[in-house]
UniProtKB/TrEMBL annotation:
Pfam family membership, one: DUF454
Listed name of the protein: DUF454 domain-containing protein
InterPro entries assigned: DUF454
UniProt entry keywords in alphabetical sequence: Membrane, Transmembrane, Transmembrane helix
Ranges that cross the membrane: 5-26, 75-93, 100-117
Annotated GO CC locations: plasma membrane
Domain of life: Bacteria
Matching PANTHER family: INNER MEMBRANE PROTEIN YBAN
Originating organism: Butyricimonas faecihominis
Length: 123
């Protein structure tokens, strides 16, 4: 049962990561890292496929080579993310449901960058 749940959440996380490539404010790497961890603990085949992927593998390899992200990079990332979220939520969209969704995704993205993505040992 746990294996199935990990695979389902991992697949959802991959989809969100792919969407994050194209949608400002939705992070890509944290979702792919989550998927990698979930697949590692549930399906070595899916884990290996994710890491060998032509389009998604480079995100994971880039992260692994640096073994974390510096605070300056995290700060720039969060500022850029919230700039795009603010423009989208308050300039582009007038619907409050869409605004709340964007703001919620921004909070998830910010928490992901701050708490899931590890800090680099050498900044």
């Amino acid at each position: 049962m746990k294996r199935t749940i990990y695979i389902i959440i991992g697949c959802i996380s991959v989809v969100l990561g792919i969407i994050g490539i194209f949608v400002p404010g939705l992070p890509t790497t944290p979702f792919l890292l989550l998927s990698s961890w979930l697949f590692y603990n549930s399906s070595k085949r899916l884990h290996n496929a994710l890491h060998r992927s032509k389009w998604l593998g480079p995100y994971l390899r880039r992260f692994q080579e640096r073994k974390g992200v510096g605070w300056k990079t995290k700060a720039v990332s969060i500022v850029c993310m919230w700039t795009m979220i603010s423009i989208s939520a308050f300039v582009v969209f007038e619907n409050w449901h869409v605004r709340l969704l964007l703001l919620g995704l921004g909070v998830i993205g910010t928490c992901s960058v701050l708490f899931i993505v590890p800090n680099a040992k050498n900044n």
